[in-house]
Amino acid sequence: MKLPGETKRERLIKSKDKAQGYGKDPQTRTIKELLDQGVINLDKPSGPTSHEVVSWVKNILEIRRAGHSGTLDPHVTGVLPTMLGDATRLVQTLLLSGKEYACVMRLHDDVPEKKLRAVMDEFVGVIYQRPPLVSAVKRQVRKRSIYYIEFLEQDGRDVLFIVGCEAGTYIRKLCHDIGEAIGCGAHMYELRRTRSGPFAEDDSLITLHMLKDAYTIYKETGDEKPLRKCIYPMEYALRHLPKIIVKDSAVDALARGASLHAQGISQLETGINKGDMVAVFTHMGEVVSIGRAKMTTDELMSAKEGQALDTVAVVMKPGIYPSAWKKK
């Protein structure tokens, strides 16, 4: 089962430029730098709001800025990617990424498994939803994509399944609609987010307690290892996006808000289509900016000029790489 963005891509070489000694490998950032350019794969507990959880993260790490990518209701648990400092500029790239949930749906009557499976399969594809009464958005009918529904087990009237879906899909409403289609009614009983874009329930998932312990150890002893297992470079949050590597000579202009043009590209990945969100990197592996592609991979490879991306967000601060132009 795959979410959008998990397509295997190949790296193509457009020009043979190499790193010229500027910038810094994200893996070698100091703790101070990570606290301003890091991301945490946080396991949200049941009870607090997503906003409260992020506030606790700021208090634990003694930082001023942090943000999450995709609100979870107070009683819902699971993957809540949390960006620190300047990494909050990447939040929008994850807000629109695919999500996966493990859900327990409670049926209002006994339903044979065969019938249940058949009805659930009908919901894979494009569906129409009106947000529930308790929601933070306007209650207008909208289209959402269900990428897959995997039936796991049924225990009486309780049904456990995995659903991969487009951002903004209401699983509570999905359960209600499945119940309506079956004819007996149903409601969401329990929900946990298991994936959000490139973040998943794996070894990188940490709890607030783990984060607190790691930061305390760092502050009291100077031991960075536990904290480095909790905070990853912000580039970790972009693994689901196609990538373009630019020449060192183009980096500073991009960091100052200039558009990326085809002649500034050194390497790029396959599978880029017009309109795709693309991450722009240096040869050192640092993210420079995020943009929407104006050309396909093939067009970018052959183009000698022309705008390659519409810039959505600039991440890197200017002045880290030398300017390729001089004022007269």
TrEMBL record:
<dbReference type="Pfam" id="PF01509">
    <property type="entry name" value="TruB_N"/>
</dbReference>
<dbReference type="InterPro" id="IPR012960">
    <property type="entry name" value="Dyskerin-like"/>
</dbReference>
<dbReference type="GO" id="GO:0003723">
    <property type="term" value="F:RNA binding"/>
</dbReference>
<comment type="similarity">
    <text>Belongs to the pseudouridine synthase TruB family. Type 2 subfamily.</text>
</comment>
<feature type="compositionally biased region" description="Basic and acidic residues">
    <location>
        <begin position="1"/>
        <end position="19"/>
    </location>
</feature>
<dbReference type="GO" id="GO:1990481">
    <property type="term" value="P:mRNA pseudouridine synthesis"/>
</dbReference>
<feature type="region of interest" description="Disordered">
    <location>
        <begin position="1"/>
        <end position="27"/>
    </location>
</feature>
<dbReference type="Pfam" id="PF08068">
    <property type="entry name" value="DKCLD"/>
</dbReference>
<keyword id="KW-0413">Isomerase</keyword>
<dbReference type="InterPro" id="IPR002501">
    <property type="entry name" value="PsdUridine_synth_N"/>
</dbReference>
<feature type="domain" description="PUA">
    <location>
        <begin position="242"/>
        <end position="316"/>
    </location>
</feature>
<comment type="function">
    <text>Could be responsible for synthesis of pseudouridine from uracil-55 in the psi GC loop of transfer RNAs.</text>
</comment>
<dbReference type="InterPro" id="IPR004802">
    <property type="entry name" value="tRNA_PsdUridine_synth_B_fam"/>
</dbReference>
<dbReference type="Pfam" id="PF16198">
    <property type="entry name" value="TruB_C_2"/>
</dbReference>
<dbReference type="Pfam" id="PF01472">
    <property type="entry name" value="PUA"/>
</dbReference>
<feature type="active site" description="Nucleophile">
    <location>
        <position position="73"/>
    </location>
</feature>
<dbReference type="GO" id="GO:0016829">
    <property type="term" value="F:lyase activity"/>
</dbReference>
<dbReference type="GO" id="GO:0160148">
    <property type="term" value="F:tRNA pseudouridine(55) synthase activity"/>
</dbReference>
<dbReference type="InterPro" id="IPR015947">
    <property type="entry name" value="PUA-like_sf"/>
</dbReference>
<dbReference type="GO" id="GO:0031119">
    <property type="term" value="P:tRNA pseudouridine synthesis"/>
</dbReference>
<protein>
    <recommendedName>
        <fullName>Probable tRNA pseudouridine synthase B</fullName>
        <ecNumber>5.4.99.25</ecNumber>
    </recommendedName>
</protein>
<dbReference type="InterPro" id="IPR002478">
    <property type="entry name" value="PUA"/>
</dbReference>
<feature type="domain" description="Dyskerin-like">
    <location>
        <begin position="1"/>
        <end position="54"/>
    </location>
</feature>
<dbReference type="InterPro" id="IPR036974">
    <property type="entry name" value="PUA_sf"/>
</dbReference>
<dbReference type="GO" id="GO:0031120">
    <property type="term" value="P:snRNA pseudouridine synthesis"/>
</dbReference>
<dbReference type="GO" id="GO:0000495">
    <property type="term" value="P:box H/ACA sno(s)RNA 3'-end processing"/>
</dbReference>
<dbReference type="InterPro" id="IPR020103">
    <property type="entry name" value="PsdUridine_synth_cat_dom_sf"/>
</dbReference>
<dbReference type="InterPro" id="IPR032819">
    <property type="entry name" value="TruB_C"/>
</dbReference>
<keyword id="KW-0819">tRNA processing</keyword>
<dbReference type="InterPro" id="IPR026326">
    <property type="entry name" value="TruB_arch"/>
</dbReference>
<keyword id="KW-0456">Lyase</keyword>
<dbReference type="GO" id="GO:0031118">
    <property type="term" value="P:rRNA pseudouridine synthesis"/>
</dbReference>
